[in-house]
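Each record in this resource describes a single protein on a pair of labelled lines. With that in mind, the following record should read easily:

===
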Amino acid sequence: MTDDNLDPGWRPAIRALPMMVFPFVGMSRAAKSPDSLMVMRALWMLFVGAIAVMGVMAVLVSSADGVEGAMGQGLALLIAGGCSVFAQLLAGRLVADADLSGEAAFVPSFQRWFFVRVAAAEIAALVSFAMFIASAAALVYIVGGAVSLAAMWDARPGRTRLGRLQDSADDEGTGLEVVRSLKCRGLTR
């Protein structure tokens, strides 16, 4: 393993995070950055932060009663939970695992895997937010947000996932350096 293939950790993404909060600045930086790993990690942190902030806001603005009776809250939880579970089951089938055959195939396939998994994770938060608006019960968003955060945890581009991918690439004998490939190539379109 070369020094270029060592995982830099999350610090570069944390340093980039303040500018990523501003949509046009963040999009411009992400498009120009040669380090797709840093961009994916920064975006992951932004999405997780947004889910948490919306949870706090839901608690602050929710009514004490919500929809009259437990029936409305139960129905909202059922709809949000059903959509959340469906999205997670579907995400695993929508996108294949990363292609470890070489750098040219790996980078776009890993990025596709990451963004599809993040999008599927966000469905739980979005549907539960809509159900929160309909029911005024913060519990609905809290449950959906928790499911969404769990799915986001599964989608994170962390050291463990990258290490497993590197081990698989080594076992296949492809010569792929996972981290170096992501650090040296920008986001694909």
Q: What stands out?
A: The chain has one domain: 3-184. DSSP finds eight helices and no strands in the chain.
